[in-house]
Structure to design on (302 residues):
């Protein structure tokens, strides 16, 4: 049996393909329901509804195609990841691969990561073994890269959560989550200077499909509960659910795109880190404002 066919019969591949097919079936089924409802509105509204649905389908398809194409055009990081797992003397191809990766990060990030990239390049000078190279990247570069990635995940989750709370249509909520998920996967891969191989992409396909399905089904649940808990509470709950689903997608993308593997963070730990970061930021801002006020008062007294 060919190796490609053996891979397609693995549980992960079957789950990813099944999730994508289920998502497609849900989208097609709910689209048919919407078209049937539009037929009951009368001729003018029916035409408006169908035109709106066509525009949504064309725009959504174009956005997904653009994000997916951007993802597939990225360089794969699998070879670099496998090389950095090794021990012993670093090969010339590994050192050249690391330099190409650093150059790509420099192109993508620019100034925000310039200091970390400079420290990394300086520390890599003269390194001839894999372990020191790996340790240099882990110490000098990956903390700053992880911080930028998590900032991107938090920002995307917040935007999706707010957008989801304003819409009560399950189909639209699922499509929004699908688009945000594909865009976040592409963005996280871009921030890491490359995308995973076939296995990592299958994992991301599974997570993206499950996020869109979860958003669609949770909207149905929110609609059913709105009569009991209130429409405002149901909308807030729906926004929280979709944001959590997107965070999970982003953490999976970070895990498979990272050139040096680390245990995937849980959603709870991610939220705690984000809260701690905001608290530290607020405290630093408060201290700076207090020191500025004291200096101004001192100058005024002089």
């Amino acid at each position: 049996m060919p190796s490609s066919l053996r891979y397609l019969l693995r549980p992960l591949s079957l789950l990813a393909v099944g999730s994508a097919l289920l998502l497609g079936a849900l989208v097609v089924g709910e689209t048919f329901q919407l078209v049937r409802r539009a037929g009951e509105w009368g001729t003018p509204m029916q035409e408006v509804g169908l035109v709106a649905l066509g525009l949504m389908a064309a725009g959504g398809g174009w956005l997904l195609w653009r994000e997916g194409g951007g993802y597939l055009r990225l360089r794969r990081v699998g070879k670099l990841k496998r090389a950095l797992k090794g021990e012993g003397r670093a090969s010339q191809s590994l050192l050249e691969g690391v330099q190409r990766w650093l150059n790509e990060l420099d192109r993508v990030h620019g100034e925000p990561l310039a200091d970390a990239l400079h420290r990394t390049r300086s520390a890599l000078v003269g390194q001839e073994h894999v372990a020191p190279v790996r340790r240099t990247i882990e110490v000098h570069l990956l903390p700053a890269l992880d911080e930028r990635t998590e900032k991107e995940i938090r920002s995307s989750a917040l935007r999706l959560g707010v957008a989801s709370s304003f819409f009560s249509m399950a189909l639209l909520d699922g499509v929004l989550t699908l688009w945000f998920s594909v865009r976040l996967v592409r963005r996280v891969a871009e921030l890491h200077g490359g995308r995973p191989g076939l296995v990592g992409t299958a994992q991301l396909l599974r997570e993206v499909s499950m996020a869109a399905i979860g958003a669609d089904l949770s909207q149905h649940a929110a609609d059913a509960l709105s009569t009991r808990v209130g429409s405002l509470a149901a909308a807030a709950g729906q926004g929280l659910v979709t944001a959590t689903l997107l965070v999970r997608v982003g953490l999976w993308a970070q895990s498979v795109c990272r050139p040096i593997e680390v245990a995937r963070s849980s959603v709870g730990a991610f939220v705690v880190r984000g809260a701690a970061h905001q608290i530290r930021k607020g405290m630093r801002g408060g201290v700076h404002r207090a020191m500025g006020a004291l200096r101004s008062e001192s100058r005024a007294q002089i």
Notes: The CA atoms of residues 189 and 195 lie 5 Å apart. The chain has three domains: 3-73+151-265, 78-140, 268-302. DSSP finds twelve helices and no strands in the chain. The first helix runs from residue 3 to 8.
